[in-house]
């Protein structure tokens, strides 16, 4: 069983990642923390709590993250996720309260209680984890692993070679990538392959008696339209963030390579780029397992089966 803390900024694809994690018998979600990313921090917190209310998982502690990236102002991901961050579905109002302590303090106490037994899954900017490592440096050796959705090798989604999560808070990403903690990085290269095709979306829409299926159908149909706005000609709709959870469930369904990854923080054209040394030209020590390819059929099926687990009795 993989014990995780999900640090996210829901976000359509964050929502699917959360659903998969909660549905999986291989993953135990000990807490959800939220970051400023797709929306400002209050809204991502609210969205995470709405999703947990939808799944009837009010017992999972939720904590709010830092108000903004470490040194920059937040530019939220409105183009892709709309003005709520989860446009396209009518989600319930949260019917429980967040924790009083913030994301950093909640992560710190859970990791201290479960030394070397917690994996941090980061599907938003790395701000909260960077703060955790800076405020509580002694926690480093107690973190089992960090799985991050972010970056790209030669590809981007908010610039030619910049991916949203890394570009929103490159200084935080740098702290995390240089931490020495075992890291798995899912960049856009694998995210672009992690698609739901029209036939998959149709299968989800046909699942009856299931509020999660209804919400996901609305979310994905709307998210799909956002890709038309940015003129990306994908066959289906890519779901980046769920790559993290899918990898924890079955890493064999991915191809990967250990690489040195550095974060560009001062580039004129490339701030936030993950510089992935695929051929180890720099001779620097690899600091991340980078995922490159995924079995799309397996991935889509995993999402569908995860949703089915929320069937109403
Ligand atoms: C990342 O950016 C966000 O819009 C998504 O939720 C995902 O985490 C992809 O670049
Ligand atoms: Ca996200």
Task: Assign an overall shape.
Answer: globular
- Radius of gyration equals 18 Å
Strand runs, count: 11
Question: Helix-strand pattern, N to C?
Answer: EHEHEHHEHEHHEHEHHEHEEEH
Number of helices: 12
Strands in their spatial order, largest beta sheet: 3-2-1-4-5-6-11-9-10
Poorly predicted runs of 5 or more residues: none
Strand content: 15-25%
Largest sheet: 9 strands, mixed
Please identify the structural class as seen in this structure: alpha/beta
What is the helix content?
25-40%
Domain Inosine/uridine-preferring nucleoside hydrolase: 4-300
InterPro entries: I/U_nuclsd_hydro_CS (IPR015910), Inosine/uridine_hydrolase_dom (IPR001910), IUNH (IPR023186), Ribo_hydro-like (IPR036452)
Protein name: Nucleoside hydrolase
GO molecular function: hydrolase activity
In words, what does this structure look like?
With 313 residues, this protein is α/β, with parallel strands linked by helices. α1 (12-23) runs parallel beside α11 (242-249) and α5 packs across α7 (170-177). It has helices at 12-23, 41-54, 78-81, 103-113, 127-135, 164-168, 170-177, 188-193, 198-205, 211-229, 242-249, 296-308, and strands spanning 2-8, 27-34, 62-63, 119-122, 145-149, 183-186, 195-196, 237-238, 254-263, 274-277, 288-294. It is globular. The strands form two sheets. It has a nine-stranded mixed β-sheet, with helices on both faces. It has a two-stranded antiparallel ribbon with strand order 7-8. β4, α5 (127-135) and β5 form a beta-alpha-beta unit. The two termini are 26 Å apart. The model has no long low-confidence stretch (mean pLDDT 96). The protein binds beta-D-ribofuranose and calcium ion. The site of beta-D-ribofuranose has 15 residues, from α1 and α6. Residues 8-9, 11, 13-14, 37-38, 123-124, 241 line the site of calcium ion. Keywords: Glycosidase, Hydrolase. One of its GO terms (molecular function) is hydrolase activity. InterPro entries: I/U_nuclsd_hydro_CS (IPR015910), Inosine/uridine_hydrolase_dom (IPR001910), IUNH (IPR023186), Ribo_hydro-like (IPR036452). This is Nucleoside hydrolase. Residues 4-300 form the Inosine/uridine-preferring nucleoside hydrolase domain.
């Amino acid at each position: 069983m993989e014990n995780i803390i999900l640090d996210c900024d829901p976000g359509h694809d964050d929502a699917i990642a959360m659903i998969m994690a909660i549905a999986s018998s291989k993953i135990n979600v000990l807490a959800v923390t939220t970051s400023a990313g797709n929306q400002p921090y209050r809204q991502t917190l609210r969205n995470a709590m709405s999703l947990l209310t939808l799944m009837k998982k009010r017992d999972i502690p939720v904590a709010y993250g830092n108000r903004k990236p470490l040194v920059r102002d937040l530019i939220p991901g409105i183009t892709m996720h709309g003005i709520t961050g989860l446009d396209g579905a009518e989600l319930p109002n949260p019917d429980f309260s967040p924790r009083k302590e913030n994301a950093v303090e909640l992560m710190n106490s859970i990791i201290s209680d479960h030394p070397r037994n917690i994996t941090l899954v980061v599907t938003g900017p790395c701000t909260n984890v960077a703060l955790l490592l800076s405020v509580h440096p002694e926690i480093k050796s107690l973190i089992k692993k960090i799985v991050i959705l972010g970056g790209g090798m030669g590809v981007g989604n908010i610039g030619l070679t910049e991916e949203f999560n890394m570009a929103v808070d490159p200084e935080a990403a740098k702290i995390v990538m240089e931490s020495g903690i075992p890291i798995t990085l899912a960049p856009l290269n694998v995210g672009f392959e992690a698609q739901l095709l029209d036939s998959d979306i149709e299968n989800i829409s046909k699942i009856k008696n299931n509020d999660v299926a209804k919400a996901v159908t609305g979310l994905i149909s709307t998210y799909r339209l956002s890709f038309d706005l940015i003129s990306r000609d994908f066959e289906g709709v890519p779901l980046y963030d769920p790559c993290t959870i899918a990898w924890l469930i079955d890493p064999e369904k991915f191809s990967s390579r250990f690489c040195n990854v550095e974060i560009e923080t001062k580039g004129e054209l490339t701030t936030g780029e993950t510089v992935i040394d695929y051929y180890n030209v720099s001779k620097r020590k690899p600091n991340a397992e980078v995922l490159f390819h995924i079995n799309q059929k397996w991935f889509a099926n995993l999402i569908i089966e995860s949703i089915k687990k929320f069937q109403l009795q």
